[in-house]
């Protein structure tokens, strides 16, 4: 089958790789000049199979009000007269019940678990390297209140069968020796040892090269204009460089997926939630993290990626803008220099990306009302983590094969 994948982020490239392995004739189209140059470029680097849950959770609305008043806030809200923004926020609020949270989390965990084995298979098949490490995520608590509040996370991890360790101060320092320099700031931590880390940009580029070896064509520098249908079935894609015919199309346009689908009468509740990151060269490895340290106070992830530290976080609801705000940079710098003093902040590069967020936290994977048109998008906070499982799933669905995990409740049909 002739399959066109729209988007060369981590989701589009992993999809293309699996579709090529399944024997399809695959073309990937992207406006950028290479893979992973938008949201997949400089994320926080966590491959966090265990630390995987929706942002919409019971108690979040009241916490959000407190966060909005913090100096180094993890949440920034810039309301606009934008119907899509307001609708999305209301839908998010509706997902903050215990019942919805449990359903959404179980969907995310199912996909994350499948992604764990799928990523391991991709590594074994291709041998690609991406500054990967398998040393877990350490959620770091600076106050007794945070440690006490983690009891419910511990209960949830136990119920979901996710391995974990509750650590005291010394335990945290054993896991992350550089924290010894700030031991008085630490009360304890929660380690999910099966989590991994790695550079999403490097991974996506390496995998794109392997996909090209399997015959995948990449049309970079190409703007996608729209979709053509014949008799309710997809027939091709219009671009600024001409028309491409297709038997099937996979939409993996990240935050832009909903804008692309709107003219087709498909309402996809994916909205951009901006995040920021810093990438800092390591000058003294003994003062750098070993894996991911999640600073619970500011909700900022600090990850070792080879000879660099990646510091990422914050949720800014401000529409489709990648503007870099210096106050956000100060928050990232504050968190990382407080826990890992001595890092070379003047040499850091600052970046922002738009997380393609659904209101229920779960991506949208599966068919649409247009025959031959499939979605693999809306991976929000953990797209790198969930990419490899999502790709296998979409490849099975496009190929008409029964997926290895339940997929019906991941499709757009779940929104009614
Ligand atoms: C600060 C931050 C930290 C994060 N940390 C983590 C983390 O630690 N772990 C994790 O798992 N996830 C993390 N994420 C989330 C993760 O980065 C995203 O979920 C993931 O990158 C989304 O991938 P994607 O392929 O869907 O989107 P993208 O990477 O944005 O790819 C979409 C592609 O579509 C193309 N495109 C869009 N419109 C058009 C058009 N009209 N024509 C042609 N091309 C088009 C774009 O050029 C782009 O290449 C983080 C995100 C942010 C912002």
Give an overview of the whole structure:
- The chain has helices at 10-21, 60-68, 83-94, 98-126, 144-149, 151-160, 169-175, 200-213, 257-261, 326-339, 383-399, and strands spanning 2-6, 25-29, 46-47, 75-77, 137-141, 165-168, 188-192, 196-197, 217-219, 224-230, 233-239, 242-245, 248-251, 271-281, 292-295, 300-305, 308-317, 349-357, 364-367, 373-377.
- With 416 residues, the protein is α/β, with parallel strands linked by helices.
- The chain has two domains: 2-40 and 202-268 and 362-415, FAD/NAD(P)-binding domain (3-Layer(bba) Sandwich); 46-98 and 132-196 and 270-357, D-Amino Acid Oxidase, Chain A, domain 2 (2-Layer Sandwich).
- The strands form four sheets. Strands 4, 5, 6, 7, 14, 15, 16, 17 and 18 form a nine-stranded mixed sheet that branches. The chain has a six-stranded mixed sheet with strand order 9-2-1-13-20-19, with helices on one face.
- Strand 1, helix 1 (10-21) and strand 2 (25-29) form a beta-alpha-beta unit.
- Helix 1 (10-21) runs parallel beside helix 8 and helix 1 packs parallel to helix 11.
- The longest helix has 29 residues, at 98-126.
- It is globular.
- Bound molecules: flavin-adenine dinucleotide.
- Residues 7-12, 30-32, 36-40, 43-46, 48, 223-224, 252-254, 256, 275-277, 301, 312, 353, 355-356, 377, 379-385 line the site of flavin-adenine dinucleotide.
């Amino acid at each position: 089958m002739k399959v066109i994948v729209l988007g060369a982020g981590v989701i589009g490239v992993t999809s293309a790789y699996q579709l090529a392995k399944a024997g399809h004739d695959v073309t990937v189209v992207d406006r950028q000049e290479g893979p992973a140059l938008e949201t997949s470029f400089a994320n926080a680097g966590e491959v966090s199979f265990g630390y995987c849950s929706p942002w919409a959770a019971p108690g979040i609305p009241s916490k959000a009000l407190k966060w909005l008043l913090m100096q180094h806030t993890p949440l920034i809200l810039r309301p606009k007269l934008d119907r899509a923004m307001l609708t999305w926020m209301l839908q998010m609020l509706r997902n903050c019940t215990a019942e919805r949270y449990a359903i959404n989390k179980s969907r995310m965990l199912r996909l994350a678990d499948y992604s764990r084995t799928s990523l391991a298979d991709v590594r074994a098949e291709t041998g690609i390297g991406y500054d990967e490490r398998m040393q877990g995520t350490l959620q770091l608590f600076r106050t007794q209140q945070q440690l006490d509040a983690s009891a419910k996370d511990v209960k949830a991890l136990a119920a979901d069968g996710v391995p974990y360790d509750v650590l005291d101060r010394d335990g945290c320092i054993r896991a992350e020796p550089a924290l010894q320099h700030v031991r008085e700031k630490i009360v304890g931590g929660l380690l999910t040892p099966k989590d991994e880390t790695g550079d999403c940009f490097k991974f996506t580029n390496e995998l794109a090269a392997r996909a090209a070896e399997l015959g995948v064509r990449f049309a970079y520098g190409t703007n996608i204009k729209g979709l053509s249908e014949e008799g309710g079935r997809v027939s091709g894609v219009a671009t600024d460089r001409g028309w491409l015919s297709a038997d099937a199309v996979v939409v993996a346009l990240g935050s832009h997926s909903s804008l692309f689908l709107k003219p087709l009468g498909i309402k996809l509740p994916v909205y951009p939630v901006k995040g920021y990151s810093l990438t800092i060269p390591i000058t003294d490895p003994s003062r750098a993290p070993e894996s991911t340290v999640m600073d619970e106070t500011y909700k900022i992830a600090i990850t070792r990626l080879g000879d660099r530290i990646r510091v990422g976080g914050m949720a800014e609801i401000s529409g489709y803008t990648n503007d870099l705000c210096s106050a956000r940079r100060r928050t990232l710098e504050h968190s990382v220099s407080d826990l890992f003093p001595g890092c070379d902040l003047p040499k850091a590069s600052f970046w922002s990306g738009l997380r393609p967020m659904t209101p229920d936290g779960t991506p949208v994977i599966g068919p649409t009302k247009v025959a031959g048109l499939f979605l693999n998008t809306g991976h929000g906070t953990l797209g790198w983590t969930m990419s490899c499982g999502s790709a296998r799933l979409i490849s099975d669905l496009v190929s008409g094969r029964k997926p290895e995990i339940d997929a019906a409740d991941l499709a757009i049909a779940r929104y009614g």
